[in-house]
Amino acid sequence: MKRRTFLQFSGMTAASALLAGCQSKNEKLIPYLIPPDEGVTPGLATYYASSCTFCPAGCGILVRVSEGRAKKIEGNPDHPVNRGRLCARGQAVLQELYHPDRLQQPLKRTGPRGSGEFQKISWAEGLGLLIDRLKELQREQVTDGLAMLTPQLSGSLETFVSGFMRAFGSPRHLSYELLAPDWLRQAGRESFGQAGLPFYDLAETRYLLSFGADFVESHLSPVQYGNAFGRMRQGRDTVRGHFTYVGGRMSLTAASADRWMPARPGSEGALALGMARLILDEALFDKAALAANGLRPEELLGRLKAYDLPRVAELTGLAKETIAEVAREFAGTRPSLAMAGETVAFQTNGPESVRAVQLLNLLAGNLNRPGGIYPAGAPVGPENSFGELMTLVNSMRAGQIKLALIKGDPWHGIPPATGFQAALDKVPFIVSFSTLLDDTALQADLILPDHAALESWGDVVPLAGSRHTVHGLMQPVVTPLFDTRQFPDVLLAVASELGGEMAAALPHTSYLELIKGTISKRVGGPKKGGEVEAQWVELLRRGGRFDADKGPGKGYRWAAASSLPDPARPRFAGDEKQFPLHLQVYPSTAFHDGRGAPLPWLQQLPDPMTTVVWDSWIEINPTTAAGLGISHGDLVEVASPQGVLRLPAVIYPGIRPDLVAIPLGQGHKGGGRYARERGVNPLVLLALVEESKQQAAWNATRVRVTRISAQGDLVAAGHPQGSYRSDLIGI
Amino acid sequence: MEKMTSPYKWGMVIDLDRCTGCGACVVACQAENNVGLCDKKEISEGRNMHWLRIERYWVGEYPDVRVRFLPVMCQHCHDAPCEPVCPVYASYHNPDGLNGQVYNRCVGTRYCGNNCPYAVRVFNFYQHEWPKPLDNQLSPDITVRSRGVMEKCSFCIQRIRRAKEEAKGEGRQVRDGEVQPACAQTCPAEAMVFGNLADPRSRVARLSRSPRRFQLLEHLGTHPSVFYLKGGGREHV
C-alpha cells in the first residue's frame, strides 16, 4: 500500500469511527482476543528444528515461524556440523517454499516436449497415469525398463528409493550429481582401502595446504569448514594457522589464503609429489608415521625420482624456490593438513593427483591426528556414478528405458557431451517430481510436484562435516501451501496400488511412519508406544540425534597393496593451437551447481569475487584480455570442440593467463521467473577427453575466446576493479 | 520523563582475518529486515537495496595478487554526518548509541544518504514487490518501506528491543551474547561479534581493544560503533 493511500484510508477510518461511535463493532476491533488458529499467538514466533537439504552437507536449521508462516531460517546451535551458522544458500531455501512460480498441482504435457504447454490434472489422474505405465512394464515383463534418477540421497530416502526399485525389479537407479565427491571416495578406497569421505580437522591445524579444495564455498561441508577456518585463524591464543592455496584460479577460498600458487591446470598432483620427494630427500617426514604405515623412505624416494624439483617447476610453471619453501613449511609445521578438491579432481589425472595429496598427508604424519585428517562419520556412497550415468545413457539410447522417474534437474546439470539429453528424449514417458517447472520438468510428460523442503518429513545424514555419524531430522514447519505430495509418499501410494510384491516390500502407510520406524530402530531405547512417541517428539524438538553415534573406529592406514600415485601429464580436449586457453567451470558461490538460481535472494547476492549480479560471466586474466582486445563487460564468444557460448567478460586479476573460468548455475530454460533465460550454462562447452570417457574430467576442455561487442550487459554491484584506495581505509 | 541515558552502547567488531567474504551475512540481513528484491536494471543504476555489502579489493598484480573483503553496514557513528542534515529528524541518535531511522518521518530528501561517507544508506527509488506467495516471508517485526523512504542497517533493532524487554521483565540487564543481529548470528567464520561496548568485560569491548583494530575512515572523526580487526597475511604478521 502506498503511503498516500494509507493516509487516505486512516482518515476514512477515523471518520467512520466517529460516525459509527454508538454502534457495537467491538468484534472487529479486537479480532485477536480469541486466537484465530490453534497454536498461533499473534506476534510470538515459534522455532522449529529441521535440516537443510539444499546441499549434501546436511546442516541443522531452526525455522522461525510466525502466524503460521515461515519467516527466516537460522542455523541450529546444537548441530555439530554447522554450530548455529548457515550459508547464504541455506537461508534462501525459504524462497523455495514461497516461490511465486511453484507448481501447485500435477500437470500433464499437452504440447511438444520443452514447449512448456501443460494441462492441470488431479492427483488421482496423475497417479493413474504413472501406475498404468508401471503395470504395463510388469505385464510385458520388462521391469528393468524403469529408470530412476535422483541426486545423491542420504538417510532413509536413499534406502527407501533403492528398496522401491529393487521391489519393482529394476537395477537402474542412478544417483548422480555433477559435483558429487565420488572421486574422493574412490581415492580413499585406493589409498586407504576405505571409501568413506575424510573429515579434516581444520580448526586445530597450523598449516593448511589446499590443492583446489574450495571449502569456503562448495567443498564437502562449507559451513563446517568456513567455521573451522575462522577458528584456525583466530580461535587460539598464540597460534594463527597458515594457509596456502594451489590452483590456477583464485577462488573465494583462495582469496583468504596467505600464499597463492597458481599451478598450471592438471599439474597439481605433480606438485604434491615434488613436495613429497623434497620432504623425503631432506628427511623432514614423520618417521613413526611412515613406519606405522609400512613404508620405507628409501624405497619411496626411489619411486619418486622422476619428480625432482626442476621438472616439477617446469610442469607447474611455479618457481623452484617457492615449491621448496612451501614443502619445508608444510613438513616443518605440525600439525599440518593437505586437502584436495574438485578443481584438481576433475582433470584426466584427477584421481592420481588426489592420491598424491593423500601421500603428502601421510608423509607429514597427519593421518588420524588432531589438526589432521580422520575418516568422516557418514556412510559410504557411490564411487563411480559417472560410469553409471554413461551406462544409463547407453540403455536410453538403445531404447531399453520405457519410463524414467526423475527427481532433481539433470537436464540442466549434466553436460550434453555425455549424450544424456539426446538419450533422455528417446524415453517414451518421463515423470518429474520438481517443485518448479525446471529444465527437466519442461521435458517431462507428467509432473507430480514434490513438497518444498520446509513442508517435508525426512532424515539427513550429513555428508562429511563430522567425525561422528549425525542423524538430522526434517519436519514440516508450515502446512503445505498447494496440492503437492512428498516424493516418497507418491512412491508409497504407487507401491500399494501395484500390490503384490511391491506392497509387501513397502507396507508403510506414509513416509512419516517409515522415518519414525527407522529412527526409533537406529536410536534404540524404549519399545512401548507412549515412550517411543515421547522420544520421537524430543528428537524432533532438538532436530535429530547428534551425540551418541561414534564414527568409524578404524583410522586411515596406507593400504599395503596400493601403488604410489603417478599423475602423468594431463590430457585435454581440444587442439592447443585452435583452442589456446584452458577452461575451468566452478560451482558458483550463490547457486552451487544451479539449484540456487531460481531464488531471487541468491540472484541478487553479488558474487563475492566479481560482485556480478543476476548473470553469468567469464573470468579472463588482464594480460590475456588485453591481447585479445577485450575489456571489462564486453560480450565475448567462447568456443570449445563441443559448443559455443556468448557471455560478458570480467577482467580477473586472480587467474592464470592461460586459463579462463565460468561459474556454474545459470542458463536455465525453466526454473521460474528469476532463473529463466538468465546467463549461460557452461556445461554445453565441456567435451569428453577421447581416451578417458569413463571419467568425469570437467576441467579438461580447451577453449578459444573472441570479442564480439561492447554490449555485454554486465551488472556488478561494486566497482569493476575494486577500489584502488584500500590503503585509505587501512586494510 | 525517563532519563535519556542508557547502560548500553551497542557496537560490533568484525575480524577481517576470519571473514571469508562468503556472503551469508548479506542474505541474512535481507531476510531479517524485509529488504526489497532488486532486479538487474535497478542494480545497474546503482540502486541496490542491500543494507550490508561486502566490498572487494584487488591488491597487486598477477601472480602477486591479493583479495581483501570488507563487510560494510551502517557504522552507527556517534558523530554521524547523516543526523544533523535531516530536516524532519527521521535520522536520529538513540540513547543506546544507535543511529536510528524513523521511516514514517522520512520525506525522502536524501540529504542523509548524500552525507554518509560510508554509502550505507539506501533509498527506495522504486516500489518493491513480493509477488504472492513470496510476501509470506515478510517479517511482522519490521515495517515494509514504501517508495520514497530512506533505509539502512539498524543493528536489527527489533532483536535488541525484544532482548531488552525480556531482560526488563526479569529485572536484569541484557547479558553478553544474548542479542545478535542476523549477520553476526549466521556468519560461518564467526567474524562478527556484537555486544555492549559500555560493558568493558563484554566480548565485543575486549576485542575492540585489540592491537589489530581500526575503524573505517577514522580521520573523518565520525566515531563509528563498528571496529574492524586487520586481516593477517604475510605483510601483517
Brief account:
The complex is a heterodimer of chains A (731) and B (237). Chain A is an alpha/beta fold and 731 residues long. Chain A is built from 26 helices and 25 strands.
Description:
The complex is a heterodimer of chains A (731) and B (237). In chain A, the strands form six sheets. A seven-stranded mixed beta sheet of chain A has the order 5-4-16-15-14-6-7, sandwiched between helices. Chain A has a six-stranded mixed barrel with strand order 20-24-21-23-22-25. A four-stranded parallel beta sheet of chain A has the order 11-10-9-12. Among the domains of chain A are: 182-375, 3-Layer(aba) Sandwich (Dimethylsulfoxide Reductase, domain 2); 581-709, Beta Barrel (Barwin-like endoglucanases), CATH 2.40.40.20. With 731 residues, chain A is an alpha/beta fold. Chain B is α+β, with helices and mostly antiparallel strands and 237 residues long. In chain B, 18% of the residues lie in helices and 17% in strands. Chain B has helices at residues 24-32, 40-44, 111-115, 157-169, 182-186, 203-207; strands at 10-15, 53-59, 66-72, 91-93, 99-101, 122-123, 150-151, 192-196, 213-214, 226-229. In chain B, the strands form four sheets. A four-stranded mixed beta sheet of chain B has the order 8-1-10-9. Chain B has a two-stranded antiparallel sheet with strand order 2-3. In chain B, strands 4-5 form a two-stranded antiparallel ribbon. Chains A and B meet through strand 3, helix 3, helix 8, helix 24 and helix 26 of A and helix 1, helix 2, strand 2, strand 3 and helix 5 of B.
Topology diagram in text:
The complex is a heterodimer of chains A (731) and B (237).
Chain A: H1 3-19, H2 26-29, E1 46-51, E2 60-66, E3 69-75, H3 88-92, H4 94-97, E4 107-109, E5 118-120, H5 123-139, E6 146-150, H6 155-168, E7 173-175, H7 182-192, E8 198-200, E9 207-211, H8 222-234, E10 242-246, E11 259-261, H9 268-281, H10 287-292, H11 297-303, H12 309-316, H13 320-332, E12 336-340, H14 342-345, H15 350-363, E13 373-375, H16 385-397, E14 403-406, H17 410-413, H18 420-424, E15 429-432, H19 439-443, E16 446-447, E17 458-460, E18 471-474, H20 487-498, H21 500-505, H22 511-523, H23 529-542, E19 544-545, E20 581-586, H24 600-604, E21 618-620, H25 622-628, E22 635-639, E23 644-651, E24 659-663, E25 701-709, H26 726-729
Helix pairs in contact in A: 5-20, 6-20, 7-15, 9-12, 9-13, 9-15
Chain B: E1 10-15, H1 24-32, H2 40-44, E2 53-59, E3 66-72, E4 91-93, E5 99-101, H3 111-115, E6 122-123, E7 150-151, H4 157-169, H5 182-186, E8 192-196, H6 203-207, E9 213-214, E10 226-229
